[in-house]
Specification:
- By secondary structure, the protein is an all-alpha fold.
- The protein has a domain at 22-54.
- Helix content is 40%, strand content 0%.
- The protein is built from three helices and no strands.
- The N and C termini lie far apart (68 Å).
């Protein structure tokens, strides 16, 4: 009788999620405005300009 190979259990990864408040708005906008046109297109579906991002 052959024994079935051991099956490893998937590793459980916990990803913390927290709410973003008004205090995060400027930092997020600064980050998004630093993206190049290609990255903006991937993020928004079009190459958003700085004004569009800040709105």
């Amino acid at each position: 009788m052959t024994q079935a190979p051991a099956v490893s259990q998937p590793t459980r990864v916990v990803v913390p999620i927290r709410s973003l408040g008004p205090s995060h708005r400027d930092r997020i906008a600064t980050h998004l405005c630093s993206l190049d046109g290609e990255d903006r297109y991937l993020r928004f579906g079009y190459a958003a300009n700085d004004e569009q991002i800040r709105r």
